Here is the input.
Amino acid sequence: MAEMWISMGPQHPMTHGLWTLKVKVDGETIVDADPELGYLHRSVEKMGERRKYFMNTTLTDRLCYASSTTWTHCYVNTVEELMKVEVPQRAKYIRTIMLELQRLASHLMWAGAYMPDLGHITGALYFWRDRELFLNLLEAPSGSRLLYNYIRIGGVKRDLPDGFEAKTERVMKLFEQRLDEYADLFENSKIFRMRTEDVGKFTASQAQNLGITGPNLRGCGTKFDLRKHDAYEIYDEVDWDIQTREAGPGYGDCFSRYMVRIDEMKESVRIIRDCFKKMPAGPTLASQIPVRAQGEAFRRTEDSRGEALMYVVGDGSDRPYRWKIKSPMFTTISACPHYLKGYKVADIPAIMGSIDICIGETDK
Amino acid sequence: MSLFSFCKWMAEWTAQKMLIPIFEFQEGLFPPFTNPAGSIADWLGTDGGITTLAWLYAVNIAFAVGMTNLILVIHLERKIAARIQDRRGPMLSFRSFRELGEDLAGSAPSWKFKENYAGIGILQNLADGIKAIAKELIVPAKADKFLFTMGPIIFISSSVFLLVLFPLSDRFAASSAPAGLMVIMAAFSIAPIGVLTSGWASNNKYSMIGGMRSAAQLMSYEIPLLLSMAGVFLMAGSYDPVVIVEQQQASSWFFGIPIWNFIPQFIGFIVFMICILAEVERVPFDLPEAEAELVEGWTTEYSGIRYMFFLMAEYIRGFAGAAVATILFLGGWAGPWPIPPEIWFLTKVYLIIIFWIFIRWSVPRIRTDQILELGWKKLLPLSLINLLIVIFMVEIYPYFSEIVSLPEVF
Here is the structure.
């Protein structure tokens, strides 16, 4: 068969959002790839310049539909640094719990979306069934299931409800049991490994050069996590380890990325448990929150998908003068020709699914 | 009484009581030579006419039985898949009819059913059929219209043909060709032509890749499939399903319990089960319509009843594949006495189908190069090994046992 371009998207089962992947194939082998982004551009940064600082949390919630709390947190963290707000200790613990619950929900969303990419529809329903449990937990303090708007400048919206710890513990116990059950269905399954091992490989140095961060980078064996290396909230006070895959044959492929995320979910459960153990009493919102800000600040946080960075400039008014968002997925998707070339057409959903695409934050 | 003698009795009865009087009455209305009714009546009176009519009845009965089973298989697939996935599956109930009636009439109807009456989710198939018929048949602007229309016809006709080819028991058979299983496999291998035709004619890159994949897959799996069947044919010495089942029933190893083919030819059984899964394109091997990368593969451009034909044909092929596996390796309709052989046969077929459904909803899909590698590098040698074992059992060991008087084992 002659070489030809196939346009996958903007509406295609593989894309998980609105974007186009143009692939040049020779028979079934990928020769070249060209991602096209921008279908979902909502000019969030420019919209933010017209709104007051505290209003922008509604926009940041909508940056990523699978992981909205982490983005709101990144923005709030940046603005707090700009305004020099001191956050109460209890609020920091609650934030950490919410961030980790959100990470669990986001990773489960990814795992559920990844399975149909491999032709395994049952997996989607299993993981999304578990995601419901964590959405219920996120709903309990915030009152909504998708766009929480829970983390506010200076703290959180309200304290955790009664019995939240017991409820969380019950869910986490059930979830850990279920993860062990799923191991036989997925990571110990021969066909699953055939589809994911040695597919979509990139090395650690390649990933660093291409700007790939987050679980995708840790899947290559690089021990880099902003929760440890640029610790925010109380990540340096609780017990947890960075989850990576050992460098060796087969690392840096789809399977290692899958395993990193599964291990991260287990680690998130550990963080939440430790947070509940160490959580102090006290207020959950700073007493004095300024409205205006002057100067510039940037913070980077570990989003579910990688390194989220926000840069805010204040000119002394109650609205940001400039607001810049750096999305982890934008760089990862842009690098896709590097890790798609040489694989088969059937590997495209396996590879592009494994990097956990969220177009909302990519196109902003 | 066999199906055919029943049909012959029915044909005689209908011909004498209904058809011949009607045609004779018509003959009386018009003068002869302008009206063939009289000669049709004469022909129906002969033995050939009755036999033709009987075959027509037999084929129709087999077709009806096959289609009924098709509906059951689709329902079973949906229900078991739903249970595996922690769902309920199709749960259409009389209550929903009532709500529909309320919507249409604007008030509650006078007739009442038990609340929450569940268990007729099988009507979902009916609803799907009506929906498919009601939808527009879209032909893409730059498609090859003739081939685009022919694709589904080739696929569905070769699949429906399968339904009347396999017997449900030695008495319930619409066809009794001595080369029965060869005819079935020939009918199985017509389908790739339809797939390739529709994939090419759609003028869509996804369809074309899907069609190519399907052709490559079906062609490479045909060889180990037929080789694993060859062992059974060698053992029975015939292509006839009836002879094959009788041979399995006759071969008793210990205490009079028949040893069906799946024990002496275990390798062949495994190879056959994998190959027939690839042949009917079920999940680990359903890459021609891999929805993740190829949208819907070679059925992407089809709509309405044409798309429904493809879906239906896949289930028919699955049913026929399970039936062939039952005849070849699981003793066909043989089973203890009180249960009729047709029920035994269908029980075994349904067990295989349920096994497939479990596989379908618990494994991911394999890649094209992997499936071809599996076919050519693993299954083909394994089927040849199976054939060698059978040759040893059937030909070499008996030959030497006569010379050096070995005990009779096989």
In short: The first helix of chain A runs from residue 44 to 49. Chain A has one domain: 44-363. The interface with chain B takes residues 1, 4, 6, 8, 12-14, 28, 115-123, 125-126, 129, 185, 189, 191-192, 194-195, 344-349, 353 of chain A (CB under 8 Å). The beta strands of chain A are 3-8, 20-26, 29-36, 151-152, 155-156, 294-302, 307-315, 320-326.
